[in-house]
Amino acid sequence: MTSSGPTERFHVLAQLEHLQSKYTGCGHADMNRWEWVVNQHRDSLASIIGHPDHLSYVAICENETRARAQYNLLCRMVQPCGPPPEKSPLDDL
């Protein structure tokens, strides 16, 4: 039988914090819904750009060249979900 003391818990939390700093898309405790959705959209768009067959499919659907479809997808990555929501004064507390 192994005992899970406070040191093991600290070790797990340190690993989680390391993963969150290494991979921004996995989120953190202070991330709001808008930031999480933006990360998901950017990951999806980057995946489409990175896979030539998916990029060709999007280009055919939009009746554009592959280069134009890639450019359009890159432009969508700037603000894929619109501007960030207004912060309330209570968010800083």
TrEMBL record:
<protein>
    <recommendedName>
        <fullName>Splicing factor 3B subunit 5</fullName>
    </recommendedName>
</protein>
<dbReference type="GO" id="GO:0071011">
    <property type="term" value="C:precatalytic spliceosome"/>
</dbReference>
<dbReference type="InterPro" id="IPR017089">
    <property type="entry name" value="Splicing_factor_3B_subunit_5"/>
</dbReference>
<keyword id="KW-0508">mRNA splicing</keyword>
<keyword id="KW-0507">mRNA processing</keyword>
<dbReference type="GO" id="GO:0000398">
    <property type="term" value="P:mRNA splicing, via spliceosome"/>
</dbReference>
<comment type="similarity">
    <text>Belongs to the SF3B5 family.</text>
</comment>
<dbReference type="GO" id="GO:0005686">
    <property type="term" value="C:U2 snRNP"/>
</dbReference>
<keyword id="KW-0747">Spliceosome</keyword>
<dbReference type="Pfam" id="PF07189">
    <property type="entry name" value="SF3b10"/>
</dbReference>
<dbReference type="InterPro" id="IPR009846">
    <property type="entry name" value="SF3b5/RDS3-10"/>
</dbReference>
<keyword id="KW-0539">Nucleus</keyword>
